[in-house]
Each structure stands twice: as C-alpha cells, then as structure tokens.
C-alpha cells in the first residue's frame, strides 16, 4: 500500500474517533483481527489492550463514557513517518475540555505517539506510546500538519 493511502486511512480513523466515535466507520477501517495496545492511559480505561472488532466496540464505548465528562474532545495528527518494515509512526495530540459535577472546568492537551501496522487496506495494530518510539528519528518523514 502506498504511503498516501496509509495516510488517508489514518486521517479517516482519526476523523471517525473525533465523530463520536463513529463505530460504523471505524469497523470499515480496522481489520477484524485488529489490536489496540494502550500506553499508560490503559489503566484509566481499565484495559491494556483491545482485540478485534469486539475490542474496538469496547474501546468506543469507553470513549463515549469519557465524553460525558470531556467536551470538545479531539485527536489530531501532527506528523506521520514511515519505517522500512511498513509500519507508520504518528506524532499527534489530544485536546479536551472537561467539566466536573461542581461546574469546575479546565482544558487538557496530551501528546500521542503511535505505531500503526496495516494488513491489506485496513489497520491491523495500533500501539500507543507515552514517548516517541525509538525508531522515530530514523523513520522517513511523510507528512506534517
């Protein structure tokens, strides 16, 4: 698959997560045997990883529950790089505004680091990281936003 096609799939995935998440769109983009490995935020979600389309449904449900507290939640891609093995590395960020039950409010911004693998024209694996992957500086720059 071309780097441009991978980027288009990643952009569609981020758009689907930002749209609610839009589970129907996500299921079209992710392989039925997909895996999503969480970084440190996995403890907050109660899962270290989500497997298959059922795991994607669970992850979407957890995100929808979080939306009850977070408003204006968005995930954005800042930069995409390619590794020789075919994996794609993403540097991005998540932003949100939170509202507590006592009407206190605040904002949050958090960096996102991901390694994404594909099978055919679908996402097979997302490995979320707290820090840049070790291969970040050696990977080929594909796009910045």
Account of the 3D structure:
With 145 residues, the protein is of the alpha+beta class. It has a single domain, classed as Roll (Nuclear Transport Factor 2, Chain: A), CATH 3.10.450. Helix content is 30%, strand content 44%. The protein has four helices and seven strands, in the order ααβαβαβββββ. The protein has helices at 3-18, 23-29, 42-45, 52-67; strands at residues 30-37, 49-51, 70-82, 88-99, 105-119, 122-129, 140-144. The protein has a seven-stranded mixed β-sheet. α1 (3-18) packs antiparallel against α2. It is globular. The two termini are 21 Å apart. The model has no long low-confidence stretch (mean pLDDT 91).
Summarize the structure in short.
The protein is of the alpha+beta class and about 140 residues long. It is about 30% helix and about 45% strand. Strands 2-1-6-5-4-3-7 form a 7-stranded mixed β-sheet.
The averaged pLDDT comes out at 91
**Estimated radius of gyration:** 15 Å
User: Could you name the CATH topology?
Assistant: Nuclear Transport Factor 2, Chain: A
Structural class, by secondary structure, is alpha+beta
Biggest beta-sheet profile: 7 strands, mixed
Tell me the distance between the termini: 21 Å
- CATH architectural name: Roll
> How are strands sequenced across the largest beta sheet?
2-1-6-5-4-3-7
Shape type: globular
Low-confidence stretches: none
Number of strands: 7
The figure for the number of domains is 1
Instruction: State the order of secondary-structure elements, H for helix, E for strand.
Output: HHEHEHEEEEE
What fraction of the residues are assigned to beta strands by DSSP? 35-45%
Counting H and I runs of at least 4 residues, what is the number of helices? 4
Q: What is the quaternary state of this protein? A: single chain
- So what's the CATH class? Alpha Beta
Helix content: 25-40%
